[in-house]
Amino acid sequence: MKIAVMGAAGRMGRELLRAIHAASGCEISGGTEPAGSSFIGQDLGELAGLGHLGIAVSGDASAVIAQSDAILDFTSPAATVAFAKLAAAGGKLHVIGTTGCDAAAEAAIKDAARTATIIKAGNMSLGVNLLAALTKRVAAALDEDFDIEIVEMHHRLKVDAPSGTALMLGEAAAAGRDVGLKEKSVRVRDGHTGARKSGDIGFATLRGGSVVGEHTVIFAGDGERIELTHLAQDRGIFARGAVKAAIWGKGRAPGLYAMTDVLGI
Predict the structure, then answer these.
(1) For residues 236 and 240, what is the distance between their CA atoms, to the nearest angstrom?
(2) Which end of the chain is more exposed for a tag (fewer CB within 10 A), N or C?
(3) In angstroms, rounded to a whole number, what is the distance separating the alpha carbons of residues 29 and 18?
(4) 69-83: b or e for each residue (b if 16 or more CB lie within 10 Å)?
(5) How far apart are CA 212 and CA 235, in angstroms?
(6) Quick one: pLDDT at residue 123?
(7) Stretch 163-186: mean pLDDT, rounded?
(8) Each residue of 146-160: pLDDT tens digit?
(9) 147-154 and 213-221 beta bridge pairing
(10) What tens digit of pLDDT does each residue of 42-74 get?
(11) What are the strands of the beta sheet with 27-32, ordered from one edge?
């Protein structure tokens, strides 16, 4: 299976290259960076510490996608929308780990999924997706006497907040309570906020150091508290999950799938 990496020179891009290289039956078919990047022309294997592969970083996303069976994309919302359109035009498999997409970007991705097989998740790791499934079940089992708070921490360079994973967990909690996250979400608390409203789902965002990703869902009741936590110590877990998703998606009908579909949970 020929798989390309969009944004191949970034930290996540290099992890994805290593994961493809290590996966049985898969090969690196290309990698991109935006036009004008100093990485264009450099060998993908050397960038990822794999040795010389004879495949250069390209600024031509269209050409890279055309010669691939699938693309792995952990870039930016604007770039992901553009890649989704190219993948749809060529009938290619598109695995999306990009976070921070607004409603317009989500709509564009959904539209592309009419003709392309797209697998999109706020987090590609097995552990986090199990955490989301548990969050939904616990939220359904407990009534609003238990307040839900989601705490997440990432490295200082992360540009979106709350994280895509935190929002995924919030959606799972809201689904468990049979409510809409948009109506119950509390993203910011500052000043004299008054008492916490029953049924709210709160988010707290921490940034610092080199933290790969930490997420805790807290169910706080009177006199007791339940905490579900996932700690990511290696970006490789996301890369391996993305490659697993690509292998699972090969030959699937066009549509928008989630990592829960890949994992069967």
Answers:
(1) 6
(2) C
(3) 13
(4) bbbbbbbbbebbbbb
(5) 7
(6) 86
(7) 96
(8) 999 999 999 999 999
(9) antiparallel
(10) 999 999 999 999 999 999 999 999 999 999 999
(11) 27-32, 2-6, 70-73, 93-96, 117-120, 255-257
**Active-site residue identified among 2, 85, 110, 158:** 158
Mean pLDDT score, 85-95:
96
HEC string of the chain equals: CEEEEECCCCHHHHHHHHHHHHCCCCEEEEEECCCCCCCCCCEHHHHCCCCCCCCECECCHHHHHHCCCEEEECCCHHHHHHHHHHHHHHCCEEEECCCCCCHHHHHHHHHHCCCCEEEECCCCCHHHHHHHHHHHHHHHHCCCCCEEEEEEEECCCCCCCCCHHHHHHHHHHHHHHCCCHHHHEECCCCCCCCCCCCCCEEEEEEECCCCCEEEEEEEEECCEEEEEEEEECCCHHHHHHHHHHHHHHCCCCCEEECHHHHHCC
- Nearest 5°: the CA angle 210, 211, 213 is 145
Q: What percent of the chain has pLDDT over 90?
A: 94
- Among the listed residues 94, 136, 154, 230, the single catalytic one is 154
Report the pLDDT value the prediction gives residue 247, as an integer from 0 to 100: 97
Amino acid at position 136, single letter? K
Structure tokens at 14: 């290099």
52 tagged catalytic: no
Whether 250 is catalytic is no
The candidate with the shortest Cα–Cα distance to 174, out of 144, 139, 207, is: 139
Say what the pLDDT of residue 179 is: 97
